[in-house]
What we know:
Layout: E1 3-6, E2 11-13, E3 16-18, E4 29-35, E5 40-45, E6 50-57, E7 60-66, E8 78-82, E9 86-90, E10 94-100, E11 105-112, E12 125-126
Antiparallel strand pairs: 1-9, 2-3, 4-11, 5-10, 5-12, 6-9, 6-11, 7-8, 7-10
Amino acid sequence: IIKIMKVKISHSDNRGEIFDIFVNSPKDHCSLITSKIGAVRGNHFHKISTQYTFIISGKFKIYRAKVDENGTIINEIKVDTIGENELIEHQPYEAHTLVSLEDDGKILAFACGKRGGEFYEDDTYRLEKKLNN
């Protein structure tokens, strides 16, 4: 089950605001990803890793569906529009695709499990049937 949560301000003063994205929840990897309007990110799933996507700026359409071990979609594709300060949790076997609706969209992608650097593709399974078609 995918979770979409609005991250609330943890502290605010005359200097600005602090948003605690995770508290007492260490992650194995974090990437900053930028996207131009129409850019498609994802169209994959993970068998072991849980991925989190935090929207820094911009708006995105998110497509998601449960898949089996081979990447075959096993339930309906759900679509939402997400934006600034929203956090999405992608559990294993939840295929996900993001399409940028604005220029200069920025997201932080966090992972629990192998996901970054030389391990980027170790738990990334591309979909033959794209979610956003």
